[in-house]
Design a protein that fits this description.
Blueprint lengths: L4 H4 L2 H21 L3 H25 L4 H31 L4 H4 L5
């Protein structure tokens, strides 16, 4: 008999760890001024949602949540590629990735 990890660990634990990860990501976006840290925080929030989707998908014996995770990861990879390309271009011009210094680009 094969026991899955999701069957032995209560779903509340996945809710708790996902909530903690999502809150860390939100605080990283709101309180950090470094653009790279902000991108990492956004990825952390996406991974928290992915963890919940996989946990609920396994809990309900339905693969739809895991299919959504696949698409979320594909979109996140594209976002990182485009975002880092923009950051490299900005760094070449401004020599900083600090969000407050990027406000100078308006003038």
């Amino acid at each position: 008999m094969h026991l899955s990890v999701f069957n032995t660990v209560p779903i509340q634990y996945y809710l708790l760890i996902s909530t903690v990860l999502f809150c860390i990501g939100v605080f990283g976006v709101l309180f950090r001024r470094n653009a790279i840290i902000m991108f990492m925080s956004i990825e952390l929030m996406l991974n928290a949602v992915n963890l919940l989707l996989v946990a609920f998908s396994t809990f309900h014996n339905d693969a739809n949540g895991q299919v959504f995770v696949f698409f979320i990861m594909a979109v996140a990879a594209a976002e990182v590629a485009v975002g880092l390309a923009i950051l490299v271009t900005i760094f070449r011009n401004v020599h900083s990735v600090d969000i407050d210094e990027l406000k100078q680009l308006k003038h």
